[in-house]
Amino acid sequence: MTESEDRxxxxxxxxxxxxxxxxxxxxxxxxxxxLNGASxxxxxxxxxxxxxxxxxxxxxxxxLSRATVARKAAALRxxxxxxxxxxxxxxxxxxxxxxxxxxxxxxKVLDHRAVEALFAEIERxxxxxxxxxxxxxxxxxxxxxxxxxxxxxxxxxxGAVSPDRPFLILKGKGGRERLVPISDRARAxxxxxxxxxxxxxxxxxxxxxxxxxxxxxxxxxRDLAAGAGIPPERVSPHVLRHAFATxxxxxxxxxxAVQMLLGHADIATTQIYTHVDSRRLIDLVxxxxxxxxxxxxxx
Length: 299
Description:
- It is built from 13 helices and four strands.
- By secondary structure, the protein is mainly alpha-helical.
- It has two domains: 3-96, Orthogonal Bundle (DNA polymerase, domain 1), CATH 1.10.150.130; 112-284, Intergrase catalytic core (hpI Integrase, Chain A, Orthogonal Bundle), CATH 1.10.443.
- A hairpin with a 2-residue loop joins strand 3 (206-207) and strand 4 (210-211).
């Protein structure tokens, strides 16, 4: 198969993507760029390439990011699927394409100054007697102070947080139970809010006949961020949970302890937070290693 035949097959594929799949112009351009690039690497034999030839692409793509390799491989899989479906080749060699593991995205992180700004805005609202300020204080104290998931927080029973008990037992993902410490200030904030919650209410944060929804919690947190002068898109209930974990690690907490507090089944999920702690670890080595004060031997 010649290079011109490769171009014909690619053009037919793009025509199908536009007509049948309704692909946008930018998507078509991306496919065209990736397919033409692969064709060039294989000397114009992309459409007829054998698995051994396709594996050469993986070697050529090694310097690229995982996301880029995954995108290129996805384009070729769709291309080969098209060729096979249209009878342009008798097999589908897509199995030879690389499947890079997806990189876990880094969590959004709020620094201490941003968190302080959020709590300062809560205090301003409380001082002004704004409706909902006490509830908001309790919500944020539990999100940032205990690392609760949004779903766990909004569905807390009316008596879940006791003034004389510095912890609560939660049943999280997969039915796994975990002990969650509750700080003195969080218990005080909950007590202040709970005073206005009917004693026969099922939930600590009731809303109508049910509890506060996660969507409403999200809206409340974003509104708080805007009031504190922080871009709302930077803050969400989950971002406050991330901040809880990140700031614990920065303060010297053990990774296993943070894993238990967050309710992660796999410590690999918790390890993503260590990226924010690299500066502290470098400083720790530079300040505490036994050879720090040792004088180098003269040459």
